[in-house]
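Morning!

As promised:
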Amino acid sequence: MNLALKDIRHNAVRFLLTVTGVAFLITASIGMVGLYRGIVSDALLIIEEVGADLWVVQGGRAGPFSESSAISAELDRRVEGVAGVASARRFVQVSQQFDHGGRQLRAALVGVDYPEDAGQWTHLIQGRPLASGHFEAIADEAVGLSLGDRIRLGQEDYTIVGLTRGMVDMSGDGLLLVSVNDALAIAQRRTSEEVLLARSAGGRAPAAPSGGSSVRQDSKIAAVLVTLDPAADPEAVRRTILRWGDANVLSKAEQAGLLLDQRLWRLRVQILAFTAVLLLVMTIVISLIIYMLTMEKVHEIALLKLMGARNTLIIGMIAQQSFLIGAAALGLGLVLAQGIFPHFPRKVAIDPGDIAMLGGAVALVCGFASLIGISRAMKVRAQEVLS
Amino acid sequence: MIAAPILTLRDAARHYPSGDTLVRALDGVSFNIYPGELVGILGPSGSGKSTLLLIAGLLEPPSAGEVHIRGKCVSHPGMDLDQMRHFRRNNIGFVFQKANLIPFLTAVENVALALHIDDVPARAARSYAAHLLASLDLAHRVDSIPSRLSGGEQQRVAVARALATDPGLILADEPTAALDSVRGRQVIGLFRQIADERKAGVLVVTHDPRTLDLFDRTIEMNDGRIVG
């Protein structure tokens, strides 16, 4: 005879409300961890997908994601000449806001080195990669565009030839891929007033100050993506490029490390702190529920003791109820998370490993809550039946 | 030949301090209950009846004296009675003023619980519990939860539960207090039947003078002592 199940069946509505309350806390925990996983996944997306072994960036800087980076648009030619380099592609990424059909849209404008890179590495769900060096774009569906749409960027119109899914930058803006030359043209768009001012200066100074850089500011890219020969020694390639002095070299792992351990470090700690607070709240709530359930059954527990029941029967009843609440809430919380989070504006990645860890945490919380209930139950005396 | 007593109290006392005074809730009480005997404990409130039941039921140890059940000393001053749960389970059945049924179990489950605690397999426990309820005219109520039973029916389920492990001693604390005279007499009649048929010793604390004719004898208490 399972007393825990019979009590739950008798008080099904109370049990369901309790489970629902705890499930929402678990859903919130899944959301916090999932949001962090989503941000990490988005941040690492380009690094993982673009297929570069090394990133050549501005000397002394750790760009282009952790810091800004500006290098000469011709640096790729120098890099191509290094022994062990199979290919070098120019790369630029800037945030872009533009008007389309009366709506203000945001995108992370990514310039890829067409024709070496036509955006085949993107997750296309409709359309095709770039087939021209100009006026074509691949957009993520998060930007809010459709295949065939024409958008005005800078001074030109661009046609959306491909649509991707799940390709966003770390701030959640959908990627908009164009050729690197188009990206530079869009990024360097000047107002008529700026052009007039530049002309009046007689070409003596650029419209934008160079800040003493050796590289012309209107022809800068963010990085050169290097693909190595299979037999190449990455360290040798790195040493060669570092000797130039005006460039820094980062591996894929270093880029990922910079993002996770520096750029996103505070966010990681903050989300983990929020998750810890949620787990603490969950511990208090479940403990309180189990304690109240035990208090409600003091008379029945006294009766069981009077009838000669072993402590294991009473402990089993309390612990089973606690773990049933936890297990049911975890299941419902997971279902809610899978139903709700896909509709959130940012990616919430539900990782099986995280769910397993959360399950472990819920088990610990339920175990702790059980101990509180059991310790109260053990203090009940059989003669309390008579009170 | 006279049967050995099922319950013996020898100079049982229960004292506890209250401020500067010592309250003598039970003060040197001795008596025997024999198998098949229905004994009533009478007395005004505060006379020690309930304390007597706690000590006889191994729920409180006496401050002095001894409790013997089936000739064995089972309680004496300072004894940890939590260790006596197993003995209590197999030897003593309790019935209270309130039925004290577990609200989330049906009538048959309430009775079977006593057997489940005694490690009787579930099917056999349920079958015997249903048989006991049928013998108390509750066959039609086996699957009802306590809130759907009348007061009298609840009390009969409590009696069935007390009988489930076939104890030699039944202790009842004012079992008819919450019932009308007809149903109260029915319950005491049930104890009479149990004493006669099962040869159990039944000790009933009662205030109800209308059922005294059903008892073999009564013990009257006052100020913690037997006075008649």
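Residues 181-198 of chain B form the longest helix (18 residues).

Hope this helps with the figure draft.
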